[in-house]
């Protein structure tokens, strides 16, 4: 029986406003995120004694190089280059450090820059398998990988373009109420369907837009958060899994399906008790897989589930309530933090106009899931966390 | 169904020639095992020496049992297409210029999932396919999923043609038409629907056997070409160098014997002058123009073929100086390959065993017939192969050389 996460608090959700292109280095974005954490929490640099860093474009530096770059002396440090799984995994590492007393306050930061050519360079050298066995095939990047998964999913389960479109359209509606979203215009289903093809069956609005940006949050004990008078959310349960279901020829599920029972049992909650869900959403098909694998519906019934619900912040199934990466932008590894910081906002009453409420009470429980690293033909990392208001 | 390509229109000399670009060429060292096999036209994947599992992408250890006893084993390529896509956007310049581009995700019968370039005649998933390894324009191996069964004009597939050096509608220079091999090459290449063939002859004032037959072929133009004459090579390159899509250097000077059977160096020098310096002269004069035309439309400059010899691998003492000149030529051909690669022009090296001609009179059979050699060259161009060991003798020597080069040296000296 795994030890629980009692006493762990998540606070100070930070988003450094994204831009499409930046001439700054990743260090600049991470510095902005870190300084925003300090400013909001009124902590001093030295008070933050733990740090996790997630970034693709920080190379050749890693987390340790960043400590000297930013003049930090943490006594606990972790570099978490797990892409879209970074947010959940950073939380998990930090939570245990705080519980064990190895660190009192851990800053989890993620950020990437985006120069006009940096996305191409990231793709070309994303992994050894990508460089040897994917990139030379048309250099389509994740668009091509997700095109395969989407085509296969549609063939297997009869999902229609309109099903994916419905999610994209709802997320855009949510993004209109999130000031940092890069997409500011409403999106209609007609516009979604008539957008130019990118990698069949994917169209333009199925694909995330790479950008520069950073997200961050603090992990600390509830007592410390209370002493600092910081609004916080609690961690009820969390899972991670890497390279699951290797025998599946094409990815139709990921580690969530293996570990969800443990997640819900640790969190003493059921899927039905979630007031909102934040999935990792670089392409809509992966959101459907997360809804299935995390037991909101059965495998293959994602499309039916989409048809049954509405996904805006005020809908029957509040989902990716800040707009998700599809409407906010994908700031590299920060894309793995977007759902986490939004969940903290929702559970601490900081979500402004898009605040989710059930009846007349604000959201008190939510699920965040992460998915990362298309190393070759599938995403390897998966993780999820159930959070609650205090 | 593949649309048969039609003869490209005459090039407008005013328009800018598209410059060559290459697909992404970076590979890990272990992945080059795929390239080593594809260079000879084979599709090989890593197989574990302990548990027998076949894996892809290439790894440093077996993903099933962690053994590092991995070897490359030939694959049938039989598999099932599970998903496909057509790219309308690419992050890479080479593909961006060639969009839309079709890709497949295939489960091989031997187990692994492979991402492949996808031939246009493969129907929508699920579909049976045959996966082959081909060299791309960057000279690196890629996997191509082909239709289960031959389809009409399948070699004309727009994507497939990017991996091959198909002679169809291309203009070819065969440097020596005097030999039986040269004449077989001319006929073979025309049968493969080459647009026209320039045929070199070193001594235009002399009539040689087979000349009449060549002269009556309408697509053949005889040109004076003596590889020992720098000025002659330069003049011919100035005249036709900008039009040659495939250059086949089959000129050779071959005399038997090694060191002790002859006085002086004249014979050896004559061999070097044709076999080594001849290649160097050709490469200096024809190389630059071909390099600039590596992406020049449907019939771009695409291949440079060298007729070497299996004796280039290990000296055959009874043909000792000839062996040495072919070894020198092979080394130079590797240099040429490196220099032609940025243009996507493939250097094809052909390593035959003894050819059944007058200079190999005293060698016992089997000897490769000129016709078989020509067929092997045409097949290599069509399949995009870069190292060709045609015939039983060449295959056997190659195997012995790979197994133990020192043993082969001793055996040849016996």
What features would you describe in this structure?
- The complex is a heterodimer of chains A (390) and B (414).
- Chain A is built from 14 helices and 13 strands.
- Chain A is α+β, with helices and mostly antiparallel strands and 390 residues long.
- In chain B, helix 8 links the parallel strand 13 (303-307) and strand 14.
- Chain B has helices spanning 32-38, 93-96, 180-191, 211-215, 230-240, 266-275, 277-292, 320-340, 370-383, 392-403, 405-413, and strands at residues 44-48, 54-55, 70-74, 78-87, 101-108, 113-118, 127-135, 141-147, 171-174, 196-201, 220-224, 246-249, 303-307, 346-350, 387-388.
- Chain B starts with 31 loop residues before the first helix and ends with a helix.
- The A-B interface holds A 119-120, 123-125, 128-129, 131-141, 143-144, 147-149, 151-152, 155, 196-202, 249-250, 376-377 and B 23-28, 31, 56-58, 82-92, 94-95, 101, 103, 105, 107, 113-117, 125, 136, 138, 140, 142.
């Amino acid at each position: 029986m795994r030890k629980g996460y009692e006493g762990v608090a998540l606070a100070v959700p930070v988003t450094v406003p994204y831009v499409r292109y930046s001439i700054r280095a990743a260090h600049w974005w991470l510095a902005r995120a870190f300084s925003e954490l300090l400013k909001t929490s009124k902590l001093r640099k030295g008070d933050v004694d733990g740090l996790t860093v997630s970034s693709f474009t920080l190379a050749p530096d890693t987390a340790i190089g960043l400590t000297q770059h930013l003049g930090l002396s943490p006594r606990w440090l972790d570099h978490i280059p797990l892409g879209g799984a970074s947010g959940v995994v950073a939380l998990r590492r930090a939570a245990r450090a705080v519980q064990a007393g190895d660190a009192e306050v851990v800053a989890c930061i993620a950020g990437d820059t985006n120069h006009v050519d940096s996305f191409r360079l990231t793709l070309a050298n994303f992994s050894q398998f990508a460089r040897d066995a994917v990139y030379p095939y048309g250099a389509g990047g994740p668009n091509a990988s997700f095109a395969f998964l989407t085509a296969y999913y549609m063939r297997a389960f009869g999902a229609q373009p309109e099903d994916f479109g419905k999610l994209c359209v709802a997320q855009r509606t949510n993004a209109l109420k999130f000031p940092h979203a890069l997409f500011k215009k409403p999106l209609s289903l007609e516009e979604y369907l008539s957008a130019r093809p990118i990698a069949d069956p994917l169209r333009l609005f199925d694909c995330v837009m790479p950008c520069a940006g950073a997200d961050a949050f603090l992990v600390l004990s509830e007592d410390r958060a209370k002493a600092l008078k910081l609004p916080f959310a609690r961690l009820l349960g969390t899972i991670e899994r890497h390279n699951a279901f290797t025998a599946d020829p094409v990815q139709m599920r990921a580690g969530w399906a293996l570990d969800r029972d443990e997640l819900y049992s640790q969190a003493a909650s059921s899927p039905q008790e979630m007031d909102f869900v934040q999935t990792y959403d670089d392409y809509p098909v992966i959101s459907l897989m997360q809804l299935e694998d995390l037991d909101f519906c059965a495998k293959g019934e994602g499309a039916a589930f989409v048809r049954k619900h509405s996904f805006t912040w005020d809908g029957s199934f509040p989902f990716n309530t800040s707009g998700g990466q599809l409407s906010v932008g994908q700031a590299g590894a920060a894309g793995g933090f977007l759902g986490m910081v939004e969940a903290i906002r929702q559970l601490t009453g900081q979500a402004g106009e898009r605040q989710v409420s059930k009846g007349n009470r604000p959201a008190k429980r939510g699920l965040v899931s992460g998915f990362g690293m298309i190393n070759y033909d599938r995403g390897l990392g998966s993780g999820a966390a159930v959070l609650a208001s205090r | 169904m593949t649309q048969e390509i039609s003869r490209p229109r005459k090039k407008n000399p005013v328009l800018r020639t598209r410059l060559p670009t290459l697909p992404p060429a970076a590979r890990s060292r272990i992945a080059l095992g795929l390239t080593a096999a594809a260079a000879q036209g084979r599709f090989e994947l890593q197989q574990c020496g302990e548990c027998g599992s076949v894996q892809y992408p290439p790894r440093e250890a077996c993903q099933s049992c962690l053994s590092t006893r991995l070897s490359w084993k030939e694959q049938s390529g039989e598999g099932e297409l599970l998903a496909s896509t057509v790219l309308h956007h690419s992050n890479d310049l080479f593909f961006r210029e060639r969009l839309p581009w079709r890709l497949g995700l295939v489960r091989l019968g031997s187990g692994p999932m492979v991402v492949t370039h996808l031939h246009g005649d493969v129907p929508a998933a699920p579909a049976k396919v045959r996966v082959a390894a081909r060299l791309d324009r960057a000279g690196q191996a890629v996997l191509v999923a082909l239709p289960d069964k031959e389809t009409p004009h399948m070699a004309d597939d727009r994507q497939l043609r990017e991996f091959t050096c198909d002679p169809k509608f291309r203009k070819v220079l065969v440097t020596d038409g005097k030999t039986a091999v040269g004449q077989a090459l001319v006929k073979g290449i025309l049968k493969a629907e080459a647009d026209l063939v320039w045929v070199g002859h070193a001594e235009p004032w002399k009539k040689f056997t087979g000349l009449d037959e060549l002269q009556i072929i309408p697509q053949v133009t005889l040109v004076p070409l003596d590889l020992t004459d720098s000025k002659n090579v330069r003049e011919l390159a100035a005249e036709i160098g900008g039009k040659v899509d495939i250059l086949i250097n089959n000129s050779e000077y071959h005399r038997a014997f090694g060191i002790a059977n002859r006085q002086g160096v004249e014979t050896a020098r004559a061999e070097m002058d044709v076999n080594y310096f001849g290649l160097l002269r050709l490469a200096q004069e024809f190389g630059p123009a071909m390099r600039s035309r590596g992406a020049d439309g449907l019939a771009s400059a695409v291949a440079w073929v060298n007729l070497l010899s299996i004796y280039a691998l290990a000296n055959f003492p009874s043909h000792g100086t000839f062996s040495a000149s072919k070894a020198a030529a092979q080394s130079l051909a590797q240099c040429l390959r490196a220099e032609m690669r940025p243009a996507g022009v493939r250097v094809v090296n052909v390593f035959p065993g003894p050819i059944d001609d007058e200079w190999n009179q005293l060698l016992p059979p089997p000897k490769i017939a000129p016709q078989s050699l020509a067929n092997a060259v045409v097949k290599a161009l069509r399949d995009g192969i870069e190292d060709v060991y045609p015939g039983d003798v060449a295959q056997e020597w190659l195997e012995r050389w790979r197994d133990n080069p020192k043993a082969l040296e001793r055996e040849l000296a016996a």
